[in-house]
Specification:
Order of helices and strands: EEHHHHHHHHHHHHHH
Strand order of the largest sheet: 1-2
Oligomer: single chain
Number of strands: 2
Structural class: mainly alpha
Shape: globular
Number of helices: 14
Strand content: under 5%
Radius of gyration: 25 Å
Distance between the termini: 60 Å
Length: 346
Amino acid sequence: MKRTFTANINGQVFNIDEDAFNLLNNYLDQLRLTFTGEEGREIVGDMESRIRELFEARLSQGVNVITIADVNSVIATMGRPEELNPDAETSAAAPAAGSATAQEHDDASEHPWYTLRLPAHKRLFRNLKNKVFGGVFGGLACYLGWNANVMRLLFLILVLCTRVYPFAIIYLILWMIIPPANTPRRVLQMRGEPVTPGTLGEAIMESGNTPPPLDERSADGNFWTMLFSFIGKCIMLLMGLFCGVIGFAALVGFLVISIGAFIAAITSNVAILTTFGIEMQWLLVSAVICGLLLVALISFAIVWGACSVIFHTPGASRRTTLFITIICIMLLIAVCILAPLAVAAL
């Protein structure tokens, strides 16, 4: 049985268990060591205010005691002290920005009619404040200084004029490999703003665990943004329903055939497998099992993404996404190896 402590965070009292209290206290101490002076006290105060808001949101869900999982979620959202320390970032950014300016000048002199300016002072992240699906175009638009809705419109035209699958796969790959701007430091790096106590404080107050998408209440919200958001939700709803049915069917098939293969291996009774039209050939059975599990994982991953777009629920973490991706790659390799061997053996 764990002890429970009472903690006053920015004027609000919370009940926190012992492990969570120690972790939070250590986190705040590290922040105070990282940000010193008058500006440092202000930034720590802003962070405590944001922590209070996140804890209040957690309590509004019916939780009575803040646990260590809640504190870890807050730390992941706010950023760790070593990530928030701007010293290393500032020293490395100055020469890079200067060299980028010189390079852009050289490019402009060689090609006065057109210059491709890739901002070295910015980093590419998915913009969760301006997203329809995963924020890929919102991040690209912020990085390149373009209009996100124009990029979405061009992408939609390309999809309608050509095949859907290649562009959908490209978008999904970008969604997977481009990290989200889900911490204050990443938001500033995405915008190309310096990471200083002042700017960091503003970003912290804007940040959240699941930032709301851009809508009509935002300063940048307009008809096109609302239209793409509506179209995106409709597409994700249809994809979620379709993939949910496919995933459920694949999961049922995976369980039935796996159980049938297990029974056949023990009792030598292959009736349950022959009922589904599968010959008792272990390479073929293994290929079918791996294929069904692969389809189920991909389908439920799409359903998860659809729910995050439609209902603004938290998406999969980077660790979870990486784990699912590795499992899918292993299953795909297994299917590609087992299927030809099974066909050759028939």
